[in-house]
Amino acid sequence: MSNEHLLEVRNNGAEAAIIFLHGFSGNLEATWRSFYGYVIDDPLFNSWDVYSLGYPSNPMPGVNWWRTDPPISMISKFISAQVTHLNLAKYKVLKIVAHSMGGLVAQSICANSLEVAGKVAGIIHYGTPSNGLKKAKLFGFLNPQIRDMKWKSPFIMSLRGEWDKLQTSSHRLNFLSVAGMSDDFVPEQSSLAPFPKENHFVIPGDHLEIVRPQSSHSYPIEAFKVLFFGGDYSLSPSLSAAQAVERKEFEKAIELYRSCYADLDNEAFRLYALALDSLGFAEKAINVLEESHERGTDFRGILAGRYKRRWRNSGRSMKDADRACELYLDAYKESESNRDYGQCYYHAINLAFMEFVYRKDKMKAARWARQAKDYAENDLYSAWALATCAEALIYMGDIKGGLEVYDKAFHDTRFGPRELMSMLWQLSEINELMRNEDVERWIASVTS
């Protein structure tokens, strides 16, 4: 569906979509044509649908006394309706790309509606006058949009207050404010100054050049990729839409469970702990799990995994690695005595990992791997059994066989993005020591 207000660039029935918003006097097609052309040609974004939204915006006053351009607040209400009730309501997650005044619209729809903020996983705005424009005072009487964009106008001051509230709430958004080094229209004091430095991104170009990329590797596109991938999903950005959906679901879980986590049943508690960890609250996840040993071996394994990741990712002391080993071994012994063989191979394969990567004992790693594989081969119904066998074969020296089984596991539809990332992370960590070219090629093939 395409009309003067909605351009359907790509609609493949995805769960997530990228939304482009033009600026003052812009156009839903002309402003973004070269930009979204590079986006839809890039396989990194194949899992996203793409739309461009438009609204009336004329730089000159009209002669039709019955018609005028709407103020930014009305445009925001129109876009909000598209997101919550009309053409875009079917999407679980949205990321917004906006130019100039469109960035004010993007901020406004999120700051004034928690329903919208709950769907938006990120905003990047280019050359947006977030503090308003001093030049607009000269022409403000001509156009309501220009009046709204005046330096510290009532609209701007209200938006800054509502945005700051949003960013200190549980609905805090990931965003980048991009400024052009040669942008004489929107100065730094308006485009960057309202936001913390970690949200600033400066690229070459004037006010228009910053949204007219000349290649797939030009600065506007690189800034766009930083919003999408940052450092979080470097292994598999092709999973970004599914990951964005999952992160939004985790945010909702934390909001729902934060005040009552001690009373949750095991499944809800497990989701709460994983949500905390996935959203960057690793310390909180560890503290919550440390208080919950009585919940069983699965939770000890989750806790051990948090220590393992912290040891590998942040260079902590060996205490984290030792604590992970202790938890995995304790949980393995209890699982074995309870004849809980699914738990047995889960803990055994992680013990193999710790022997290989932490203690550098390849023989012990192979023994634990063989143990894990024996248990996993008797579990015909679990996708994790397949992944365990793949990893076990690697430790046992059968690289070719292991990669063949990894290939089956990676294309098993029972795995979600978090599980796939966990699988890839573990294999990448193993291969840091092995330096096997076949493993490197396989990882590259599934993450490209």
Could you provide a short overview of the structure?
By secondary structure, this protein is α/β, with parallel strands linked by helices.
Describe the structure.
The protein contains 19 helices and seven strands. The protein has helices at residues 33-41, 72-84, 101-111, 114-117, 144-148, 154-167, 188-191, 219-229, 240-257, 266-278, 282-290, 297-314, 318-337, 341-358, 362-376, 383-395, 399-410, 417-434, 437-447; strands at 6-10, 16-21, 49-53, 93-99, 120-126, 175-180, 200-203. A seven-stranded mixed beta sheet has the order 1-3-2-4-5-6-7, sandwiched between helices. The protein is elongated. The relative contact order is 0.07.
For the structure shown, list the relevant keywords.
448 residues; seven-stranded mixed β-sheet; alpha/beta; 7 strands
